[in-house]
Design goal:
mainly alpha
Length: 241
């Protein structure tokens, strides 16, 4: 015999399990786009550096689409999974690509180009995943079981790559935007600005914990998504709530 008093805890438990299941399903959809976003971003840094005179990343095997070469066990696996499951925010980092500025043909200019290569690669990937959304929509009437994963994965790929691009363009060292800004500043100002680099990650984490990072990034992310193919689907799946 069951009493009514036991039902609310049961319902709450089932609701929690359903939420966890939804999060895990979404995480599974995100895995491939995340790996590609990180891999292409880091490989782009190394490839541009090698073209501009520094072969360090090339010699260390970092100019590759093999994600294992770029994965940091904590920053690429543990932290993103934890922040996503606990707070619904995907946050993390990959192993930085080594660049020796002394080998570059024009160090200040070339460091800016090497830094900009990562966000540019994410923009190209966002366009690719946007095209994947349209491919999925075109296949929907004939092969729904193929179309749905393409649409969901394509939408996730757009969001992840746009988010990484916008995040990395923040003018904060050691992010790519900080590298670009540092290269553009006069040498004296650049030296002062470079002293902030050891504190950059702590500043970023502080902004994340305070909820300010999302407020800064989200309008730019949504505005960028609006310019890309498949934007309607992306906004419906990720920004409609």
């Amino acid at each position: 015999m069951t009493g009514g008093s036991g039902q609310p805890p049961y319902n709450a438990a089932m609701e929690t399990l359903n939420q966890i299941q939804h999060q895990l399903e979404l995480l599974a959809v995100l895995v491939i786009p995340v790996l590609f976003a990180i891999t292409v971003h880091e490989a782009a840094h190394g490839w541009v550096a090698s073209r501009l005179g520094d072969k360090t990343a090339l010699m260390l095997g970092r100019v590759t689409f093999n994600p294992i070469k770029h994965i940091d066990p904590i920053g690429t696996v543990l932290v993103p999974a934890a922040t996503f499951l606990l707070g619904g925010v995907l946050f993390g980092w990959a192993k930085p690509v080594p660049v020796d500025w002394r080998n570059l043909h024009h160090p200040r200019r070339d460091m800016a180009l090497v830094a900009a290569a990562g966000p540019f690669a994410n923009l190209v990937m966002a366009l690719f995943w946007g095209g994947m959304i349209h491919t999925g929509i075109a296949l929907f009437q004939t092969s729904e079981w193929v179309a749905l994963p393409l649409v969901y994965m394509g939408a996730a790929g757009v969001v992840i790559n746009v988010f990484l691009m916008v995040l990395n363009l923040l003018p904060l060292l050691p992010l790519d935007g900080g590298r670009v800004l540092n290269s553009l500043l006069p040498p004296k100002w650049s030296a002062y600005y470079a002293r902030l680099e050891p504190y950059g990650l702590f500043i970023l984490l502080g902004l994340l914990v305070a909820g300010l990072l999302g407020r800064v990034l989200l309008p730019v992310v949504i505005g960028t998504v609006d310019l890309l193919p498949g934007s309607g689907v992306v906004k419906e799946l990720f920004f409609s709530r």
